[in-house]
């Protein structure tokens, strides 16, 4: 049930279309503004947080008219929303004046890639897709649960298993930080204006990886290097990409590694296989 009623008296969830009307501006696709207008989808998003997630301070990137902000304020003690567009930032402060006054909502106007992020306990966002990768790799190292909307292909690559066509550097580097699941496919019709692409909601639950990495930066660079040569064997990948991985003696790594591993291709290497090889590479070839 949603309400189109007066601002500030909402005991039921706010109606998406009414919020867009009160914001006084339509979404501009050139500014990554595709707003959720399907209540059922918006209502489900906060429920994808893991049960054990700490809901004391939830971060939202890209608040827009505030339909998700509204649901997050119902599910969390405190919310910080980062919004780049001054019209929508001003609208959010107006629309949620009571919550701002009560210190339950902070509206940060600025670019989510530049602003200082608060000490949040979880992040739930319908992201601006043009910054999907950069913002994800700002959020992932915080080790907090994330529920994020992405372009379908991007979210599926994050969640992909070794041996599938979607599996790549993005899968390994995301899964390094947490367990990744696609919770829901969201059709274009759930947004206004309708985006050109389909979307997915992805949950990332932080956990320690099931392998050990001594030098995280080298591990991530090594994975990046080997996926630039995904059609080549690992043997040739190691040899051809020292300028990316930073190896000073790639030949020593090839000599030390198992033949079984050297014959594989990056797309068939599980994250734990990369980690084992990265440890060996750091010991023998850095
Ligand atoms: C896909 S819309 C989502 C809006 C709202 N949460 C919803 O679900 O309807 C993305 C929002 O992010 C904002 N935005 C775009 N780039 C941004 C950036 N770099 N930093 C912060 N916000 C940004 C846009 O103005 C827009 O309001």
UniProtKB/TrEMBL annotation:
Subcellular location: Cytoplasm
Record keywords, A-Z: Cytoplasm, Methyltransferase, RNA-binding, rRNA processing, S-adenosyl-L-methionine, Transferase
InterPro entries found in the cross-reference section: KsgA/Erm (IPR001737), rRNA_Ade_diMease-like_C (IPR023165), rRNA_Ade_Mease_Trfase_CS (IPR020596), rRNA_Ade_methylase_Trfase_N (IPR020598), rRNA_adenine_dimethylase (IPR011530), SAM-dependent_MTases_sf (IPR029063)
Protein name from the UniProt record: Probable ribosomal RNA small subunit methyltransferase A
Function, in words: Specifically dimethylates two adjacent adenosines in the loop of a conserved hairpin near the 3'-end of 16S rRNA in the 30S particle. May play a critical role in biogenesis of 30S subunits.
Ranges where the Ribosomal RNA adenine methylase transferase N-terminal domain occurs: 41-208
PANTHER family the record matches: DIMETHYLADENOSINE TRANSFERASE, DIMETHYLADENOSINE TRANSFERASE-RELATED
Residues the entry annotates as binding S-adenosyl-L-methionine: 34, 36, 62, 83, 111, 126
GO cellular-component term (any): cytoplasm
GO molecular function, one term: RNA binding
Record-listed E.C. numbers: 2.1.1.-
Pfam families (alphabetical): RrnaAD
SUPFAM superfamilies, per database record: S-adenosyl-L-methionine-dependent methyltransferases (SSF53335)
Annotated gene: rsmA
Similarity remark: Belongs to the class I-like SAM-binding methyltransferase superfamily. rRNA adenine N(6)-methyltransferase family. RsmA subfamily.
Taxonomic superkingdom: Archaea
């Amino acid at each position: 049930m949603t309400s189109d009623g007066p601002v500030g008296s909402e005991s039921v969830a706010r109606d998406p279309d009414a919020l867009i009307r009160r914001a006084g501006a339509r979404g501009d696709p050139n500014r990554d503004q595709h707003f959720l207008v399907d209540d059922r989808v918006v209502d489900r998003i906060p429920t994808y947080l893991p049960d054990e997630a700490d809901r004391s301070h939830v971060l939202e990137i890209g608040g827009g008219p505030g339909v998700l902000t509204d649901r997050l304020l119902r599910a969390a003690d405190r919310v910080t929303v980062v919004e780049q567009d001054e019209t929508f930032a001003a609208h959010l402060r107006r629309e949620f004046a009571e919550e701002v006054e009560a210190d339950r909502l902070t509206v940060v106007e600025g670019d989510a890639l530049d602003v200082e992020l608060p000490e949040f306990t979880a992040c739930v966002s319908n992201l601006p897709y043009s910054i999907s990768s950069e913002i994800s790799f700002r959020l992932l190292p915080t080790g907090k649960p994330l529920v994020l909307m992405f372009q379908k292909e991007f979210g599926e690559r994050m969640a992909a298993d070794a041996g599938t066509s979607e599996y790549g550097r993005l899968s390994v580097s995301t899964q390094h930080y947490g367990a990744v699941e696609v919770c829901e496919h969201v059709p274009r019709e759930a947004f206004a204006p309708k985006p050109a692409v389909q979307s997915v909601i992805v949950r990332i639950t932080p956990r320690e990886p099931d392998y050990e990495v001594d030098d995280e930066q080298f591990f991530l660079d090594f994975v990046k290097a080997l996926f630039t040569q995904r059609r080549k064997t690992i043997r040739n990948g190691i040899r051809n990409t020292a300028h990316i991985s930073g190896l000073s003696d790639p030949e020593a790594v090839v000599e030390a590694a198992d033949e079984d591993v050297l014959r594989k291709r990056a797309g068939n290497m599980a994250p734990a296989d990369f980690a084992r090889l990265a440890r060996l590479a750091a010991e023998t070839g850095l």
